[in-house]
Design a protein that fits this description.
This protein is an alpha/beta fold. It has 2 domains: 175 residues, Spore Coat Polysaccharide Biosynthesis Protein SpsA, Chain A; 94 residues, no CATH class. The protein has 9 helices and 11 strands. A hairpin with a 2-residue loop joins β6 and β7.
Length: 278
């Protein structure tokens, strides 16, 4: 079976625990090209990428736009028709690859939303908020949302942005396995950085009516609650009961608490900044 007219891009930094498994799951016959965009890793990330036949491109962020994904699209534009952005802790399944192959064979869409199975404590979660990303799209159809920042954080990659595309989008139902092998301590540290970025992002756009008109229903709810103490509790109960997290028993409660603590931290930062300015 010939590879798809597709480039798979994995933006990474110090991902030696995850990257090998992600590239192994990707395989050799799914995409024409695989690119690892590395941010000066100090572990074996680059060596692992090369061992699996991926092209390695180094990226150094200057603290401003563009970050890693948009930088790749602008400066090393894939020569294939399609591009798929994966994180190193996202493993393609056979069902996903088969559905993508069928979808790309005859479509007028310029992009596809992807679904993920979240693994927690080594096992997949049955409930909780679903993870979706618009991460597969035609090269040249658009790029990730432009966010002008001046080192709000040390995060050199677009985090919760989706690409803004010129055209219609579809959805791949088969799921990608989202497995992070680096453990809970790393998850907490990573999400502390994410929380600081989210707080700055909200404060920068909360009065921008043009952007608000493009928010999804989930974003509208999140941003309305962002400056209140209700954000974490609402997410906890929504995750556990509204989205079926209870089906995972103790793990479901623990996952809901972890995510709620993340949103609590965002809310705390936003309210502290607002209080300081008032």
């Amino acid at each position: 079976m010939s590879p798809l007219d597709l480039t798979v891009v994995l933006p990474v930094r110090n991902e030696e625990r995850n990257l090998g498994e992600a590239l192994k799951a990707l395989g050799k016959d799914f995409a024409m090209q695989s690119i690892v965009v590395d941010s000066n890793s100090t572990d074996r990330t680059v060596a692992i990428a090369k061992e699996h036949g991926a092209e390695v491109i180094n990226f150094e962020w200057d603290g401003k736009f563009p970050k890693k994904r948009n930088w790749l699209l602008r400066n090393h534009t894939p020569t294939t028709e399609w591009v798929l952005f994966l994180d190193a802790d996202e493993w393609l399944t056979d069902d996903f690859k088969a559905e993508v192959r069928a979808a790309l064979a005859n479509t007028e869409h310029v992009g596809f939303w992807l679904n993920y199975t979240i693994y927690f404590e080594g096992r997949p979660l049955e409930g909780g908020y679903p993870l979706k990303k618009l991460a597969l799209f035609r090269v040249g159809a658009g790029e990730y949302e432009r966010i002008d920042e001046d080192r709000w954080s040390q995060l050199d990659m677009e985090i919760h942005e989706h690409p803004v595309l010129d055209g219609t989008t579809g959805e791949i139902e088969a799921k990608i396995d989202h497995r992070d092998l680096r453990g809970l301590d790393h998850w907490k540290k990573k999400h502390a950085d994410y929380a600081a970025w989210e707080a700055h992002r909200y404060l920068a756009i909360k009065d921008n009516s043009a952007l608000q008109s493009k928010w999804s229903t989930f974003q509208k709810i999140k941003y309305r609650l962002m400056g209140t103490p209700l954000l974490g509790p609402v997410f906890f109960f929504g995750c556990l009961f509204g989205m079926g997290g209870w089906r995972d028993g103790k793990r479901g409660v623990q996952w809901a608490l972890l995510k709620a603590s993340y949103f609590n931290e965002i809310s705390r930062m936003v309210r502290a900044e607002q209080k300081q300015k008032s």
